[in-house]
Amino acid sequence: MTTLRRQKLATVGRSIGVLLLLGIVPMGCCCSPPTVEEISRGPLSFIQPGVVSKTDLLMRYGAPTGRYEEEKILIWRLGRRPRGDIVPATRIFLIHDPPGDDSGPDDWGGTLYDLVAVFDDRGLLRRYKLVPVG
Fold it and tell me: What is the pTM of this model?
């Protein structure tokens, strides 16, 4: 094999390697779920203990998926739409499930986190936590 041919093959090999790397890296970035910190600083940045009320969260996220301690603790199951919005899982079902799909409560596709909110006697948020699901 001539030196010129070896150089051309090496160049083609490097080019293919770079193209594969460029194709794989963005896929990994786009497909990884957002971290708790990213969600807390982004879509959930409005949630401030002592400022946000139970009514605020009910208006924004609708009926919670869990209610405990005489509704002083509410839980919403959150997921991500394809375009990146963080929304309650029930809204994800409305968008993605075909009509008549009764796949049951164990079908939580797209769910990333549970938002657990604890309220005081006046209905103000005392604290909250995002708990990864899965």
Answer: 0.62
